[in-house]
């Protein structure tokens, strides 16, 4: 009998195109992915992958099994939806993955909203990468994923088996120690902050890229201390060690820093919630999705001045 979890992995391999990319997308090692696919080949009794020293690709039998797997996953979703529709009251377990800054900002309001549904359980997992979260939604391991997008371009509503809902536009803001001499001002320019010690993400990170562009545009050169992780950066700012620029949602719940608008235009990030299109009829998933929309709207009314 074919193992559904291994079928999901084969399906993801077809989407990613390589074992290494599949490993990254699913949060496994390449060795583990290779072993699971080899086990699936034994179950199927035919070669599903054509392997070389440096790559692997689907055989004809592998491609046919991927086509069958797409139908199997759709059938599983349809079965879950059909059974869930038996009850008007949303019930069961809904697994959500999110990056930490959004999880912290939205978790409280969502939990409070979902208390009216005692038979519904939401499980929140930390997201490591967007590609991993999307892979886990596609495979059915995760029901909903909160992801961010720094491209500035709106994603289409549907991409393959996934549906994308735009949740909020999260602006970049200046973050200072709570008692900083500039904290009394509502709007700060890049030149006002140029003389301050800066703490920022390493080069290549989206918020750092936006900051570097701002400094180049304004002809500013400042020394920067680099740290990984927004929570670490904001904690250092709170301790008075410097200033930074961060997405508003990352600092919204903190009381130990001052959050101020930046006079110059800075691109923010778009936050989306993603689910399998086939899950649209599941009351539990749609209830959590609605709670996410409501919590985000309420939270972001405070960010309108930015």
UniProtKB/TrEMBL annotation:
Keywords, sorted A to Z: DNA-binding, Transcription, Transcription regulation
One GO MF term: DNA binding
Any one cellular-component term (Gene Ontology): protein-DNA complex
SUPFAM superfamilies membership: Periplasmic binding protein-like II, Winged helix' DNA-binding domain
Keyword Isomerase: no
Matches recorded under Pfam families: HTH_1 (PF00126), LysR_substrate (PF03466)
The keyword Cell cycle is assigned to this record: no
Ranges where the HTH lysR-type domain occurs: 2-59
Family: Belongs to the LysR transcriptional regulatory family.
PANTHER family referenced in this protein's UniProt entry, alphabetically: LYSR SUBSTRATE-BINDING (PTHR30346:SF29), TRANSCRIPTIONAL DUAL REGULATOR HCAR-RELATED (PTHR30346)
Protein name: DNA-binding transcriptional LysR family regulator
Organism: Glycomyces artemisiae
